[in-house]
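We treat protein structure as text, and this decision shapes the records that our systems exchange. The remainder of this section carries one protein's record, kept here as part of the documentation:
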Amino acid sequence: MPKYRKKPVVVEAFRFGVDEYPSWFYQKILEHEAIAHVEGYVEILTLEGVMTAKIGDYIICGMQGKCYPCKSDIFLATYEEVMEDDNMG
């Protein structure tokens, strides 16, 4: 059976409740694609339905501008930070 490797894709992300919200996340809130609750969680409308992220989870903005949550341990095992001068293409 063939095996596959995920292509390297550069995404933008931040930790909900830890990092400052990027402008694209504010835009998602304005477009009602994300609802941040004062109780410490956010609901994000994704292609798979509404997903929830808690404080410390990463919010990823992937290709085509779609956002989705990712638990911190999974994010750190899957992604590494890209320096601004790294080849982005």
Remarks:
- The helical segments are 23-30, 72-78.
